[in-house]
Amino acid sequence: MYNIMLVEDDLTIARTLQDHLEKWDYQVTLVTDFRNITEQVLRLDPQLVLLDIMLPYFNGFYWCGEIRKISKVPVIFISSASDNMNIVMAMNMGGDDFIAKPFDLNVLTAKVGALLRRTYSFQGQVSIIEHKGVVLNLSDTTLTVENQKIDLTKNDYKILQLLMENIGRVVSREEIMQRLWENDQFIDDNTLTVNMARLRKKLTEWGLMNFIATKKGLGYIIE
């Protein structure tokens, strides 16, 4: 379980974020003493820090600079101060990403997950994911069905990896799009529909009809 340290002085926002992220199996620690953030980073040893800009005593830019003196932990700024100068300052001070308030909680969760994967994906990663006799090989990005290997496109693999990492849980379209295109560029929602249709056609040809189920208005699931 990843431990996220949340530095947000608005308790209502902090509790909302904590409740939402904990539903996704993250451990979230709220900072309540804003006088020495670096001391708490050293004590908690989080895998990611969510950091507001406007804070008591010193702002988030200052604390990000101080954190960078002692740790390479990923830092995502969350702030209503979303003009270009603040975004540039956040990146220059060592931030890894910036999310403007008010934000969509699902988008924030997708960004958190993407940054954690990029940072920690090679630490103790398993080499295969198996479900009902279907094996996804993470080493060569192939799918094996009844001892037959299926070659996957880059997007086929990313979709299946995300869904098979979350067996039994509905994965939103937004989360899948974030996995496929990990940037802030606008992607037409229809692009995901096309990719999903191609993948399902390929799976059906190998006898895996309805392997990926649609939950209308919610997303996709492998049950």
From TrEMBL:
InterPro entries: CheY-like_superfamily, OmpR/PhoB-type_DNA-bd, Sig_transdc_resp-reg_C-effctor, Sig_transdc_resp-reg_receiver, WalR-like, WH-like_DNA-bd_sf
Keywords: DNA-binding, Phosphoprotein, Transcription, Transcription regulation
Protein name: Stage 0 sporulation protein A homolog
UniProt modified residues of type 4-aspartylphosphate: 52
Task performed by this protein: May play the central regulatory role in sporulation. It may be an element of the effector pathway responsible for the activation of sporulation genes in response to nutritional stress. Spo0A may act in concert with spo0H (a sigma factor) to control the expression of some genes that are critical to the sporulation process.
DNA-binding region: 126-223
Source species: Desulfitobacterium metallireducens DSM 15288
Span of domain Response regulatory: 3-116
Domain of life: Bacteria
GO BP: any one term: regulation of DNA-templated transcription
Any one GO molecular-function label of the UniProt entry: transcription cis-regulatory region binding
Ranges where the OmpR/PhoB-type domain occurs: 126-223
A GO-annotated cellular component: protein-DNA complex
